[in-house]
Amino acid sequence: MFYLLDGTKEMISEKFIGFYIHGSLAMGGFNPKSSDIDVLVVTNSLLAINIKVELAQFFLINSNNPFPVEISFMNGEQLEDWKHPSLFDFHYSENWRERYEKDLSNGTSLYINDKQIQDADLAAHITITKHRGICLEGSPINNVFPSIPRSDYITSIMCDFEDCLEDIERNPIYCTLNLIRVYWYLKEGIISSKQEAGNWGLSSLPKDLNSTIQKVISGYDSIDFDKKELQKFKDYIYRNVQMLL
After folding, report:
1. What are the residue boundaries of the Polymerase nucleotidyl transferase domain, all occurrences included (predicted)?
2. Model confidence over 153-207: pLDDT tens digits?
3. Residue 145 in contact with residue 74, Cβ under 8 Å?
4. What is the CATH number for 47?
5. Do 18 and 134 fall within a single domain?
6. CA separation for the pair 149, 25 (Å, rounded)
7. Are 212 and 225 in contact (CB under 8 A)?
8. Fewer CB within 10 Å, N or C, the chain?
């Protein structure tokens, strides 16, 4: 983890305000087989294009070595003047790998440029950072990040919720746990890791869903999920979430 911090600080230099861990690693639910290292970095001003090039090169080398990295860079102005979906300066995740590789190999600037892009997920990332995050180095979390309106957080997590309803057969473990996590938040206001949500679901959801949830918690890729059991689970969660919105 500290190699990511040290490399980032070296590239952004005097712009550095803080390096913050959120997600499963911060909440004690990190799974070496499936989890990302989730990071927010805050700077005091916009990043120049040459710094973004260095960041892209750095994360292309260091993400998936050994764990995938999902990291977003924001500056103080974007945080102080909060709008949802929020702007950000630079983002890296494995979904962006091919885009950056093409820009760097072709000398293009389709993705590495001076544009500020919106990301609806940042409302969720910041909320989790405020409640469960870890400041690895820099200014304290509460001094840097605003309190995100609950409505923005719900809008953010519901985007992923809708995706998971569609993708549950293709990615049953992630989607089932995430659907439970959203339901738990809407029902009781708890911000949780996917692992915590799975354990809550096992003890709190109807017993006839337990076998599906138990499969998900075990996390074995070789487990077969029946379409009917996934549909039954999805129908239950969707129905109950709609009642809470």
Report:
1. 17-75
2. 999 999 999 999 999 999 999 999 999 999 999 999 999 999 999 999 999 999 9
3. no
4. 3.30.460
5. yes
6. 24
7. yes
8. C
